[in-house]
């Protein structure tokens, strides 16, 4: 609108155009003042609870003491981050976090895809619906209840898993106390809980595949496996890659809750991850600066991995987040 | 039809039959693995803990009893936690839905100057945050430690939900609708409440459920910010009962072994009852709203 009306003016057309544009923006803002009002509570919320804490990250480079406050505490540079990286426990916690999340990714990422493919090829609509309802269900169970169920079911004295095992003459196993089993339990209980829910998106993508492709393939005599390989998988590839990138972004973001809840002194050597360590250092030992530095380190690694994976995906498949 | 082609077709059919059998079997197995633990909890909650613990109860209730539930419903701490959880869930959901729907709608409007800047400001928070300690310090400075308000506030508004609502409005609401309304002299506020909101009932339901499930199950924030037992929501109490050993029982062991054993079995029967009582509300609501949930995930996948 503004540029058609400024066309005839010979002097400083850019300048005038800018001015006109500014007044147009101003007009729009004025006529839409109510929308800014709509946004106000949300913006205030994020400024208070996300942006103001970001200001507090500086204590990762300071020696924080409550009496001096965030601003007044003396700078110590990268002392805390160096201390964390050079601490004897560093590699232990770092690898625990990395292994746990890589294992979760490798086992947990294909599971919903396989489930979606299976459900997609179930002929009976009723069985399909029942299967979906049931597989989504565990998603709604809280982590606390999930871990509670695990410790009951896997208990060596009273759990049903050991009852079943004893039918085959296997001695009771104290699953939750064996550190070599921690990762398997963590990952597979996660799959139990979330594979169904995560499959929704793939089922949706599969149902939107054009039926013409399948009909043509059937006429050509393609088997169902061949159709999966040549039609279904290529058509869900874009969403798969997008989700893969997103998942890789959280590679060091092993959630606090489940790891913490599954922890006991027997499995601590594999169950202590960066997020649980940050919590213990920060709130149990009140080492505020050290804890913040560890958290910052974690966020940075996550971000770097996200950028790398996104770049690789963009170069190889032209699918990326940005 | 040539011989080889026909043979080929029969072979394909055989392969497909094998495929169908395999997938049906596999799915059936998966369903059993998912359902059995849930079924076990339900049945165990009505059974005599003696049978449950000795492994005699595997498929059907043994020694039917409602002792667990009686104990659960007479436990004052549990009732307090239950009320707290309901309060936090209602509060968080109300606040979250209110703010997300309003801001999601505003951000969907293409004629809103600086909406890109505001959107970017929100998205940044999905990848960067202050982290645990800076947030904790802030909450302390605001004098919100150990208050119910902070539990309701934190986590109620999520950028993901805002993007979901924004995508809903940009894809489902034609711009001409607003332009027409504007010509008729309908302002933003009236348009939103009279036209946009009624059209978006489904997405509002989805958001409400997302937030409600989240706050019902929320464990981290209450653990960090609450110290007063009377303000604890269910998950904190559940952890004590289900996962960590109760100190009261260990004391009892020293005093009276028989009483301790009795207390321990009681804990066992309460365990399953408590899981049912705290999980059932959500598991009961969800099948009726399943189609909306699915819709929500799909709108989310359109990409923000």
From TrEMBL, chain A:
InterPro entries: MetI-like, MetI-like_sf, UgpAE/MalFG_permease. It is a multi-pass membrane protein. Keywords: Cell membrane, Membrane, Transmembrane, Transmembrane helix, Transport. Residues 1-22 are annotated as: Disordered. Residues 94-309 form the ABC transmembrane type-1 domain. The chain crosses the membrane at residues 33-52, 93-122, 134-154, 236-256, 293-313. Gene3D superfamilies: MetI-like (1.10.3720.10). The keyword rRNA processing does not apply. It is found in: Cell membrane. Its main location: membrane. Belongs to the binding-protein-dependent transport system permease family. This is ABC transporter permease subunit. It comes from Neglectibacter timonensis.
Automatic annotation (TrEMBL), chain B:
It is found in: Cell membrane. Its main location: membrane. It comes from the Bacteria. It is a multi-pass membrane protein. Residues 82-278 form the ABC transmembrane type-1 domain. CDD domains: TM_PBP2. This is Carbohydrate ABC transporter permease. The lineage of its organism: Bacteria, Bacillati, Bacillota, Clostridia, Eubacteriales.
